[in-house]
Amino acid sequence: MPGSLEPLDVGVQIPYHFRCPISLELMRDPVTVCTGQTYDRTSIESWVATGNTTCPVTRSPLTDFTLIPNHTLRRLIQDWCVANQSFGVERIPTPKQPADPTMVRNLLNKASSGSTPFGLRLSALRRLRGLARDSDKNRSVIAANNAREILLAIAFSDLDSDSNFSELSHESVAILSLFSLSEPECMFVAADSNRVAYLVNLLFHSSVEVRVNSAALIEIVIAGIRSSDLRAQISNAHGVFEGIVGILNFPLAYPRALKIGIKALFALCLVKQHRHKAVAAGAVEALIDRLAEFEKCDSERALASVELLCRIPSGCAAFAAHSLTVPILVKIILKISDRATEYAAGALLSLCSASELTQREAVAAGVLTKLLLLVQSDCTERAKRKAQMLLKLLRDSWPEDSTANSDDFACSDVVPF
Q1: What are phi and psi of 35, to 5 degrees?
Q2: Which of 223, 250, 356, 406 has the fewest CB atoms within 10 Å, measured from its CB?
Q3: Are residues 193 and 314 both part of a single domain?
């Protein structure tokens, strides 16, 4: 149940028949099986998924694995929650029912049929999109019905047709952005320059939702192919970096843009030969200006992108020219995560190796103390090696009162990485 059971022990007892026989916790989505017993949906699904074919209570064989929602019991549980709010009980939300496979098949048939009226096709796609957004379970049901192949066909067929088709394509791209694609499915997109160009064009659409969905699909495709040549072709597509940077710079009122934008930028920056295009498109400014606004996982991707771009001369120069780069990177060390620290130290190492001015900026920002703490921390070995190399590089820039204690650290005993 929401929260823990401990706060309820002194004031309220959960009725026995409101508890799932498997988990013994308050049921959030009670369902009845063919034996007449009721369980919480997640518990009985886990029971069956591990290979059990009998009813946990009666031990009778489950001849039918259909789970029937017990709406009456669920309403009674919700009423009980409301009646006991003073004891810290939160009302459980009404669960959304999982997608029915037959309904999903019908929707896919409608969406893919050229003889079906446009309005019905669009309605079917929007219904599928809503189901896919609701839960992993729904996405599994949709994927099991050959949906990805159908949606790819809709998204990229007749790209030069009328605006009606564009709406169908946009909906298909939106649904595909919620799934993982197999390598053959990614190849279907990546191996056709027209399809790649179409997705890049969508990055400049008037609707930010269309732009973000296209960026998400581009990232999925790049991550799903092993061919370095095809990845390079995508990163070399005209306007792709400008489109992604534009998404990163979108106002924070649409936070998904920031999350998808950094995933796509990082995937594109993994292609070394076209990183200069990211710099030319304004990726450096976008990364530094938005670095404080990323969530933890996205911060790590952003910092990894910073380190990758610092490895090329134009990127290193652009970061060095931004007044906030060095102070932010120094501040991040030992703040967000071990990976973030490693990437920040790596970026600083590249920047300081290229410029004595940057070395002085880093020392003035307090990098010395951070690095000395880092080499003594439980951070990754790669981060420590980068810190040691940076300490050695900055030795001549240290304040005089700091060098006396520097011999305690094995800065000269550095292993290359």
Answers
A1: -85, -5
A2: 356
A3: yes
